[in-house]
Amino acid sequence: MALFAVVWRYTDDTRLLDEIRPLHRDYLQDMVKQGVVRQVGPFRDGSGGLPVYDVADENELAMRIGEDPFSVNGVIAESHARPWTPVVGPLAD
Question: How far apart are CA 38 and CA 54, in angstroms?
């Protein structure tokens, strides 16, 4: 498995963001239970978020992001993923 840090920028459509957020959070909770999402949270300014995925490869990452209600409903305006290696902290284990 490999960790990927993903930076999302959300759409400026706050109505859509608010409407889809509960579905998005339910999806992420399920991904956390499965061990696929290790950490996630929005930026304080509301412009986007940063999830950390633990997946086999970039193909699985793309699939998981593509199934997220934020992706399905056009909330994610930009997405940048990078392979990530934590060195210190709980994800470094």
Answer: 7
